[in-house]
Predict the structure.
Amino acid sequence: MADGADNTVVFLAPVPNAPRPQTPHTQTSRPYNKAPTALSRPKINLSEGLDLWHRVTVESVRASEPDLSTRQMAVLMTIYLSEGPHTVRSLAQHLQVTKAVISRAIDRLTHHGYVERAPDHRDKRSVVMCRTSGGIHYLRNFARVIQTEFTS
């Protein structure tokens, strides 16, 4: 979705699946969602990357919105940036953590109004995580902070 004032905020559309690169920590090649390749990405070194992450984190802590844990942010961004439906099981598999970790993160994200639980119309025993306007607002603001800090 694009913001009317700044058309560069387009990160909320689902991105296509691609094979996951093999690393020492991942021996399976499950599909995962990666960022769109249409955008050119400038290269930054490790020090610049850590400095950027530090500045973004500091701005996030200073903001009036809740500051989310890394796990909560990973769950939130997975729900918003990859195609669903998203269940506790599918999120746990995707992030390679336990269902209990996902459930705790979803509890907090629901408390903040960033996601909602809804019955799965395909399987009445299952619950899916749904996006909310609050979550869209939070991620747009977070993206703006990243954009601002990256260009400063």
Remarks:
- The first helix runs from residue 46 to 62.
